[in-house]
Amino acid sequence: MTGRGEEWFSETLYGSFGQRFEVTNTLFRSSTEHQDLMIFETPFFGRVLALDGVIQTTERDEAAYHEMLSHVPIFAHGNVKDVLIIGGGDGGALREVLRHNDVERATMVEIDGSVVDLCREYLPMLSNGAFDDPRTELVITDGLKFVQQTDRRFDLIIIDSTDPGGPSLPLFSDEFYTHCRNILTGHGIFICQSGVSFVQADESRDTKRRLTEIFEDPALYLTQVPTYAFGFMTLGWGARSDMARTTGGENIRRRFDDANIETRYYTPDIHAACFSLPAFMNYK
Ligand code: SAM
Questions:
Q1: Which of 141, 168, 172, 207 is the pocket-test mutation for ligand 1 (most atoms within 8 Å of CB)?
Q2: Which terminus of the chain has fewer CB atoms gathered within 10 Å of its CB, N or C?
Q3: Are 135 and 103 spatial neighbours (Cβ–Cβ below 8 Å)?
Q4: Threshold 0.70, pTM exceeds
Q5: Annotated catalytic, 160?
């Protein structure tokens, strides 16, 4: 245990600015085969996972990300049975997907098994038992390899990867998006994390370009995750038609009420509003 204010974690994502967190206890710190992994306790955000010096998820604000990654496409689609999650080793997205009783199978493809093992041990509240759900299939391999080789089809593909760099770089490519589109079912939806647009504009702009070139219905939508600092967190959406994305609010609300799940961030009203973007994000 460290005394108050003795140890701080400074995020290394940007050159001239950043965020830092007081560390009250370092639970784990080591390099895995793929990345530097740290799990530590903080007074306000609770337990925190960082990979290669970048905040991945915190106990206190993870719902704003994992709920919007999962419930927006699932309530918009209306009949998601087979889900593919690429990355997401902490288990938060898996937990939210499996709260939908109609989901029959959730396959998680995570390149670094240590992330799963260590998050199950030190951040169990994130997966909350999802890895033990009989509907879960965990595959430890590279996401690009998986989508190149699988002959399965998915109603929803969620890319919950680290930012482009290191092992996740292949997941930000035309080739990867094209393979994902080809393994979607007819009304399937592709969702990807695409950075904090105000400070990672290139990542959001590149995502929108790739989505536009590869999907008939490309879009970006927003959530607000305080520890994805310095602006809105951008999520990418790709589908073969705009049918799901334009699902009326009354349908969304009915599906939300029928699902009977309690959320900390997602609401049908937030769903209706999240595709509205500020002017600086109307990338041409
Ligand atoms: N919520 C975080 C964010 O928005 O940055 C992502 C959290 S999750 C821990 C990111 C996961 O992506 C990591 O566990 C990492 O190992 C995994 N990952 C990175 N590259 C990958 C790849 N090529 N295939 C599969 N998983 C990958």
A1: 168
A2: C
A3: yes
A4: yes
A5: yes
